[in-house]
Amino acid sequence: MAAFHPLELLALTASVLVPLLAAAHAVLYKRDVRAAIGWVGLIILVPILGAVLYVLLGINRIRRRAAARSPEALGPTGGRHRPLPEAALSARLGEAAHLAALAHLGSRVNPLPLLEGNCVRPLVNGDEAYPAMLEAIDGAERSVGLSTYIFDRDPAGERFLDALARATRRGVEVRVLIDAVGARYSWPGMYTALRRAGVRTARFMPTWVPWRLPYANLRNHRKLLLVDGRQAFTGGMNIRHGHLLGARPRHPVQDLHFQLTGPVAAELQEVFVHDWHFTTGEQLGGEGWFPPLGHCGDTVARVIADGPDEDFDRLRWTFLGALAVAQRSVAVLTPYFLPDTALITALGTAALRGVEVVILLPAENNLRLVAWAAQAQLWQVLERGCRVVLTPPPFDHTKLLLVDDAWALIGSANWDPRSLRLNFEVGVECYDPPLARALAGLAHAKQTAGREITLAEVDRRPLPIRLRDGLARLLTPYL
Questions:
Q1: Pick from 30, 271, 374, 394: CA 20 to 30 A from residue 195's CA?
Q2: Is residue 99 part of a domain?
Q3: Which of 297, 331, 357 is the last residue of a domain?
Q4: Same domain, 139 and 286
Q5: Strand extents, DSSP E, 292-363
Q6: What is the dihedral of CA 106, 107, 108, 110, to 10 degrees?
Q7: Is 397 annotated in the active site?
Q8: Catalytically annotated residue among 228, 275, 405, 416
Q9: Looking at the structure, do residues 292 and 400 belong to the same domain, yes or no?
């Protein structure tokens, strides 16, 4: 028998050892059983390619690096602002006093306190959000912190570039953090343009992959703008021309953003400062970033930072808690609906208890695989009495959870594994019946314009479509 050439022996050894090590790593370190099974199956079926994909997309490299974050990276929110006692929250909520149990859960899973005295203003689409954000940047005196997943170099992005450059020239401390994958959604990119304009800019988790990956993991999906530590903007909106519906863009996208003032702005500032320190090592602090903040409104709010590190599962626990305490109504607005078994059970349980559960999804989705996988799961919530409504075009990117017209969760997270387990997200829970009712009005308008689908309609899909959707659902751990 001919002896193996050393290179052939090396290749053979690698073809066996690398998949074995990748599969062992998935078994040992994947928290989600479905994800572990999916990755091991992929590695077994296509050993080399599966192992390479697992190394690129499946390994959480954040946990080890997150341990290096300095505790001093956090701002002074906890010391400056006294948390609102749950008993005081119950008295303030009146008929919705049962939601104080949700606040108690939040205090157990989240280190940031519940703060009173905030003002939260909804901003519909880029037509309302961008002018308010640009006005805030132009009025900045001491600091501007901007964190976004996508910052396109298009007419909308150019307006932000100009405003940030003007602020820099005025002597304002400006810091811009763009996710390294999101930065590639336009070419030429905005990262280089910002740096050439003198704006301090960094990319979150740089990657050597030279193209954008819609299904990439471990990304910073947060959208934050902090101005002088006093004004904060957050929600689901990236910086893209498509959000300016009045300009009739080629690819219009509906979305909802929020302007926040009051003590909760300091909590959002903490999240930005934390991420900037993690990315660059620079520590931001002082009154230019954390000024004294007084009360300015009636919203009781708390920021929820979520990610695949020490912040793991905070938003998921909040979703589960909100569904558990709901007594009358739940409205879910999300562009990507791939809930895990626990969330599906919680939605169904709420509906079986008599809670009106309405799930609003876009009729047209920008990610086909996600839309197909979502269709394969809809029967599980429909058969328990949840209502599913498809909202009309253009594509709706809104992320919102409403409970009993008294509590709202706003922010960047979708109802999918990527948002709830793999990416860095931020949410703000708001205890404020007038705000929740106003947002419920927006949701109701979408529901009225939409089309409700039934369990019978889902079951009537042709067999090839059901097979397509079912196969897409198998990819849920990677979507």
A1: 271
A2: no
A3: 297
A4: yes
A5: 299-306, 329-333, 356-362
A6: 70
A7: yes
A8: 228
A9: no
